[in-house]
Amino acid sequence: MLFTHFAESFKRPTFWTYAGWLDIVTKYRRSRLGIVWLLVPPLIYIWGLGAYFSNMQNISVAEFAAHVGVGFLLFRVLMTSINDCSSVLSAQQAFILDGHTRLTDFVLLVIAKSLFYFVLALPILAVALWAAPEVHMRGIAMALVTMPVLLANALWMGVVFSLLGARFPDVQELMGSLFIFGFVLTPIIWHADAVPAGSLQSKLMGLNPLYHLIEMVRAPILGDQLSPVTFYYVAGLTLFGWSMAAVVYRRYARYVPLWL
Fold first, then answer.
1. Tell me, what DSSP letter sits at residue 1?
2. Overall number of domains in the chain
3. What is the C-alpha separation between 141 and 139, in angstroms, rounded?
4. CA nearest 85: which of 22, 36, 155, 148?
5. Which intervals hold domain ABC-2 type transporter transmembrane (predicted)?
6. Whole-structure pTM over 0.85, yes or no?
7. What is the pLDDT of residues 105-128, one digit of tens each?
8. Over 90: is that where the pLDDT of 60 sits?
């Protein structure tokens, strides 16, 4: 059922792509700068936090800005996908109660918005990568494979959390708080090799799915060593996640109109 609905959604992308872009445009239409405001968070995180924490760790700003830039943009894709999906079904209550029961459209709407944010911030990331002392073009080419894997995991997470959010409205508030901790726990403003091996921090990092999903994309681009554990972790996470999402969707998607 889940895969059938996704196939139908991908055949008719107009609804979720246009609705995602319209949400962004209407959000900023009253401001003087409009969607230019979308460039402010990447600027602050990449060059503001990058410069601040690079000095604390005795790393050049140019090198650390690329590390922070890739990590932050990928983290924001995952955070936006999961956090916004936990409230998307209640936000689209009118459509659902009117008979639009293909819930995958609403999950893809959120993923499309997160990708719009990502694409609009790419010029700032491109500057950070251009200034970095070492960027591997082979790693950038490899991102054409690893980035879809990251998005595939964002999709199944979006499905699960959208159903959880429809049943338990407090899930969005909970996830918002957890992602604050998740940002600190994930090596975005610090390097993974700064954590002592065998420490509690190292074990928590190794269990953190956000770390493995981000590192899978970022490490080849910046020429860092990618542990084989990350490949196994992401492969297992993807298979387990989609299996769980399919079961949960088949079992509970029918109850969403009642929950709303």
1. -
2. 1
3. 5
4. 155
5. 24-220
6. yes
7. 999 999 999 998 899 889 888 888
8. no
Q: CB neighbours (10 Å) of residue 135?
A: 16
197-203 LR contacts (CB < 8 Å, sep 24+): none
Tokens 């246009």 belong to: 18
- Between CA 76 and CA 161 the distance in angstroms is 16
The boundaries of the domain holding residue 197 are 2-259
Give pLDDT tens digits for 153-212: 999 999 999 999 988 888 888 887 888 888 888 888 888 787 777 777 778 888 889 999
Q: Give me 14's structure tokens.
A: 């107009």
E strand or H helix at 108? helix 104-131
Q: With the CA atoms of 207, 210, 214 and 216 taken in that order, what torsion angle do they form, in degrees rounded to the nearest 10? A: 40
